[in-house]
Specification:
four-stranded parallel β-sheet, 8 strands, Rossmann fold, 400 residues, 21 helices, Fumarate Reductase Iron-sulfur Protein, Chain B, domain 2, alpha/beta
Length: 400
């Protein structure tokens, strides 16, 4: 047995194989295959670590197809830490790979987590979309090239990062953490967050050097890299309170017990005392709230999102039905495109039936994945961060 295997088996032994998690597992609900259920994956991990099962493409597929959504944890009476178990198992698998394969995987994650590269890619993708050549090629289905389609569909959904407004100096100040993809997703809330916080008398500071929370590395089997990113993030942000724009980053921060406290942006805004002069314009439209898996794992879930948006006069607010993952799940939408699309299908059907004008979500990955699906389905639905909607309806001429 390898170093760390005793810890892995200890986590797996917590599972009593009762099966109460099965109805809550998105991948099991699709195929009804035991190997794609939480208890099935745990049994496979136990057999693999003990040496009873060899590493095979089929075993790898069962483990790779796990979303890491942790819906099973919320349903488990034994409180099995399935997310930690799966992260540990993936780290063991990555450690067994040849050095060149580890290097390639790490380089890919570094690219996907680079704010600068994503921003440049978003600019190029936008120019392509609005060019005659791009429009003609897209009409011909050029973006559906086998193997490249998952990347193409998301690249065509990226939006250039907005210029962040200057944060006025206020007595109260926070660090606003946007995350790797938060600035290039549809309806990005970074600039909006700075404006709304400023209207509430709070200065929002963003790190000059882009930093990552480490989640991308941790869930792909690189815990040491994840830890280095997390330590660099904490050192960069300093001692100010931290407010997170992306619920996935907030969940990672809390789950790994990083130094200091981070609050999700909507929850932070919801707990503030709003001055009476700060008025919001009516929005007589149907707005649907999507709850990402990462937000569901936070204390109070995404109830603060609903409370925040209920401040908007005349809004028709609702929740997107279904408690299963949309299929984004970090790099899952790139690594497992068929399953990701199958999981998204129910969400799109609900949106088609509900016909909202706007869908809001706090997870950048979910925003990209769902917006791409909406675009391909031809649905006239805008996707944005909840705070972007608040910012849009904020009266700028309000005075004390």
């Amino acid at each position: 047995m390898l170093q760390g295997d005793a810890k892995l088996l200890s986590l797996a032994d917590q599972c009593v194989k009762c099966g109460l998690c099965l109805p809550h597992c998105p991948t099991y609900r699709i195929g009804q295959e035991e190997g794609d259920s939480p208890r099935g994956r745990i049994a496979l991990i136990e057999g693999w670590v003990r040496g009873d099962l060899a590493t095979t493409p089929r075993l790898d597929a069962h483990l790779d197809q796990c979303l890491g959504c942790r819906a099973c944890e919320l349903a488990c009476p034994s409180l099995v830490a399935f997310g930690r178990l799966m992260d540990t198992a993936r780290a063991r698998r990555v450690a067994s790979l040849p050095r060149w394969r580890r290097w390639l995987r790490r380089a890919r994650l570094k690219t996907l987590g680079s704010q600068r590269l994503l921003a440049r890619g978003a600019v190029l993708a936008t120019r392509y979309r609005h060019s005659r050549v791009g429009q003609r090629l897209e009409a011909l289905g050029a973006h559906r090239v086998p193997g490249l389609e998952p990347i193409a569909r998301l690249a065509l959904t990226l939006t250039p990062p907005p210029a962040a407004p200057r944060a006025d100096s206020h007595e109260n100040a926070v660090n606003l953490f946007v995350g790797c993809t938060g600035a290039v997703t549809p309806g990005c809330g970074s600039a909006a967050a700075i404006r709304v916080l400023g209207a509430l008398g709070i200065s929002a500071h963003m790190p000059a050097t882009p930093v990552c929370c480490g989640a991308l590395y941790r869930h792909q089997g690189f815990p040491a890299d994840a830890q280095r990113e997390a330590e660099r993030l904490v050192a960069t942000l300093g001692d100010r309170p931290v407010v997170g724009l992306a619920s996935a980053c907030v969940a990672e921060w809390r789950g790994q017990g990083m130094r200091g406290e981070i609050l999700e942006l909507c929850a932070f805004l919801d707990q503030l005392a709003w001055p009476e002069h700060l008025r919001l314009a009516p929005i007589p439209q149907r707005v649907i709230v999507h709850e990402p898996c990462t937000h569901r794992l936070l204390p109070d879930g995404n109830r603060a999102v609903h409370r925040l948006l209920q401040r908007l006069p005349e809004i028709e607010l609702g929740a997107l039905p279904g408690d299963h993952c949309c299929g984004a799940a970090g790099t899952y939408m790139l690594d497992q495109p068929a399953l990701a699309q199958a999981l998204l299908r129910d969400k799109l059907e609900s949106l088609r039936r509900l016909a909202p004008a706007i869908l809001v979500t706090t997870n950048p990955g979910c925003s990209l994945h769902i917006a791409a699906g909406i675009r391909e389905a031809g649905l006239p639905i805008e996707v944005c961060h909840p705070v972007a909607l608040i910012d849009r309806q904020l009266y700028r001429d309000a005075v004390p």
